[in-house]
């Protein structure tokens, strides 16, 4: 099986030496995404709800680069800084999921509380694993 790494995805900022997207056969892996614009800026003064929305939007950009969408996601992993971010994440995810999963069926998600992310200004990071082999 050939593994293809995509070191650049249009619209995604880079925060280190890694590829934001990799493909291996039918599997597509999206590295953890923050809620930044393509230049790495946080909109809305870093508002946690906007970071969550932006992180999902960036996961969507990465998936689209691979020719996929949210219907192809097998699982999400979410990293949050601070327990106080959990209610904001839950409420915002509910709003985002209503748009991207209108049937109300959601992929698995592991939610982890962490001491910090790569930059202190980030409170949310979301990664995804998707499958190219079929749709729901």
From TrEMBL:
TM helices/strands, residue ranges: none
Top-level taxon in the UniProt lineage: Bacteria
Pfam families documented for this protein: Ribonuc_L-PSP
Protein's UniProt name: RidA family protein
Gene source species: Streptomyces sp. NBC_00093
């Amino acid at each position: 099986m050939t593994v293809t790494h995509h070191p650049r995805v249009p619209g995604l900022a880079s925060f280190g030496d890694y590829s934001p997207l990799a493909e291996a056969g039918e599997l597509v892996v999206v590295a953890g995404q923050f809620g930044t614009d393509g230049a790495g800026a946080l909109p809305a003064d870093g508002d946690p709800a906007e970071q969550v929305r932006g992180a999902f939007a960036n996961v969507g950009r990465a998936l689209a680069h691979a020719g996929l969408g949210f219907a192809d996601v097998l699982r999400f992993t979410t990293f949050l800084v601070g327990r106080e971010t959990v209610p904001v994440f839950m409420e915002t995810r509910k709003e985002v999921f209503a748009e991207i999963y209108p049937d109300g069926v959601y992929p698995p998600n592991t939610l982890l509380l962490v001491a910090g992310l790569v930059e202190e200004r980030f409170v949310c990071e979301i990664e995804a694993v998707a499958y190219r082999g079929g749709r729901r």
